[in-house]
Amino acid sequence: MSRDALFSAEGAASIQRCGSCGAEWPFTLTASACPTCDGLLEVIHPHPAMHGAALLSRFGGRCCTHHGSEASGVWRFRELVMPGEGAVVSHPEGNTPLMHRASIAEYAGVSSLMLKHEGRNPTGSFKDRGMTAAVTHAVRTGATAVACASTGNTSASLAAYAAQAGLPALVFVPEGKVALGKIAQALAYGARTLIVKGDFDDCLRLARESSRELGVYLANSVNPWRVEGQKTIVFEMLQQLGWQAPDWIVLPAGNLGNTSAFGKALRELHALGLITKMPRVLSVQAMGAAPFAHAFDTGFTTHEPVRAATVATAIRIGDPASWDRAVRVIRDTNGAVLAVSDDAILDAKAVIDAAGVGCEPASAASVAGVRAARASGLIGADDSVVAVLTGHVLKDPELVVQYHEQMRPVPPRANKPIPIDATVADVARVLQRT
């Protein structure tokens, strides 16, 4: 089999293949990196027995709420996620909305802008899609404990799915750098929450060392099964679009797991003939955590980690683990990478929130990125664009309050609470001003 083959022979078992040395490993391998060279692994599935319209019909026939349907927006696509029999650990997840809001589209300067809101997943972020696949693999391979490093969303998701599976969970989070709404979830769901004196990159290093030396199943985005679950964001998005690919898919970029997953999804769908064109992928980083954007500007001739600093905690990562896989995606899709300021992220977030949609700060990087790309001419006014919102507005409530009540100078879109006396006259004065 070619090292670059997307699928193995029909009826074969799924395998894991190293992206660096090409070594192939069985489905049952629980290491998150190649035992030969420590490269990142990629899952290769057997070629589906169904093809073309028949396969799309099968996916559609499982959708949503009718009798015999699949409630999960991940396992609906099981032939391309984890073929074969066996129990799955599912909340269920997915089935997130694809929405249009005129005010957000006008702000971004793209009339057909659509929003894929992954904050509507069970624990409030896209991480649930990857975690259902990773924890299912952990259960099927006999793992006795699971672990992750996290800026918050991964820990919340792993804690929930591990609790459902009955597995002990360890989550490593950087001291003082995780939003309250996220760490509260990890604690509530019963994970052993380890506060590390360092940043996310220190947490990931410690989690990987613990996995190698203690045999704990690592569920970070370097885990290839996380990628298998997360690529269903693209599957479901395209299903909602009638399998007509947009011109652009825009997403926030931190550890680059989603960028990697999106590219794998698009390559597989194109190879199966389920889409006829490849959307361009635009990955958006915060300026204070933008090593991938800086590398893109040099044609990916550099790879220089940074000490990350941004209000968008979910993408506050200075040395992304899925770097090489993400570079391939940008090149394969004729995509792009850019960085936006924290002010631009907060401004876009205020617009998204005020439209009644809401999202966490890192999510707003995608809309801020569309606006910046439109201003530079990279994205055209008539291009079809889907921007992915990765997390729920209540993931970072402290920042919401700070933005609207405490930030100085006062942001132009601040919605400060108004103190009044307990009189109808005061209510009337507020209504008049409104």
| Unreliable parts | none
For the termini, the CA-CA separation is 66 Å
Kindly name the structural category: alpha/beta
Strand order, sheet with most strands: 5-6-14-11-12-13
Number of helices: 15
CATH architecture designation of the domain at 98-124 and 226-406: 3-Layer(aba) Sandwich
Mean pLDDT: 94
Give the SSE string: EEEEHEHEHEHEHEHEHHEHEHHEHHEHH
Radius of gyration: 21 Å
β-sheet strand percentage: 5-15%
- Total beta strands: 14
Main sheet overview: 6 strands, mixed
Helix content: 25-40%
Strand and helix layout:
Elements: E1 7-8, E2 15-18, E3 24-26, E4 41-46, H1 52-61, E5 98-99, H2 102-108, E6 114-117, H3 127-140, E7 146-149, H4 153-165, E8 169-174, H5 180-188, E9 192-196, H6 200-214, E10 217-218, H7 224-230, H8 232-240, E11 248-252, H9 257-271, E12 280-286, H10 291-297, H11 323-332, E13 336-340, H12 342-354, H13 361-376, E14 385-389, H14 397-406, H15 424-433
Description:
The protein has helices spanning 52-61, 102-108, 127-140, 153-165, 180-188, 200-214, 224-230, 232-240, 257-271, 291-297, 323-332, 342-354, 361-376, 397-406, 424-433; strands at residues 7-8, 15-18, 24-26, 41-46, 98-99, 114-117, 146-149, 169-174, 192-196, 217-218, 248-252, 280-286, 336-340, 385-389. It is of the alpha/beta class. Helix 5 (180-188) links the parallel strand 8 (169-174) and strand 9 (192-196). It is globular and about 75 Å long. The mean pLDDT is 94.
